[in-house]
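Minutes, project check-in
Item: structure for the 317-residue chain
Input as provided by the requester:
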Amino acid sequence: MSSAWSWYVIVLVVLNIGGCVWLLWWTARRRPGDPKPEDTSHVWDGDVTEYNKPLPKWWINLFYITIVFSIGYLVWFPGFGSFAGTSGWTSAGAHDAEKARRDRQLEETFGVYADQPFERLAQDPAAMELGRSIFANTCAACHGSSAQGAPGYPNLTDATWNWGGDPDRILQSVLDGRQGVMPPLGTVLEGIGGDVAVTQAATYVRALRSEDIEATLRSDYMAARGKKYYDSLCIACHGPDGKGNQDLGAPDLTVRNTLYPNTLDSIRTTIIDGRHGVMPAHRDLLGETRARLVAAYVWSLSQSSATAAAQAPPERQ
């Protein structure tokens, strides 16, 4: 606060306190010629009389005590311009003290789970409840309250993981974040074979999800033509069989649980404009232990899904 503003505040405070004292004194005192408390000329309806009785002394003294208290408050706490107060109290200091107290409470709550293996955390109901709570507060905005994601946001309950689904990789994703970049290839393909080349490449990518890719290529001319574009532009990241590369975050193109809709128009958009997916880092926000708890919770969701799929009866042909 500049000295000009400080003096402005000081003058306002002094005028307000002085004005309250003067107003209290001026209105409470009796002047020569004032009628006695029981005498007045104000009478209505013959017997309704207005008296001129002053406020009780205890009421007046209570006002004076309030004024004295306000002066003491301004001496003890900051509020009188740039004067810091004799207590040394500041809102920033109070915030830091409260934060330190809360951090100690959190450390006591989460400290017992530090460095515990994921398998043990996943079998601990209390740990999973904490992980679920952290997920709801931090992750549900993107991945949904059920962790099943949305277009562009991965489903965390299935077995499809662009960056790997083992505990260490999930923990690394939570702590340090991820950035998946699919470069735009529309200009390149259109330069080679026009817009039809984009459609052919998209058709081949969609065909990778068929049960028999070779049979699909023999029966689908557009997919067969698109394979050469895939082999020249896409194979470096997604691999010759389209199963992706978890070190790069390149998706497995053979699965049906895709990050974006499995439609020809959506695949064409991906090829033409590219995609840029960002998972923000949470190391500073959550710390190691809370990140481990929420990562263990996410890992347990995919494990439950895998177990249910393994126990499900085979589909009838």
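Outcome recorded: Residues 308-317 have pLDDT under 50 and may be disordered.
No further action items on this chain.
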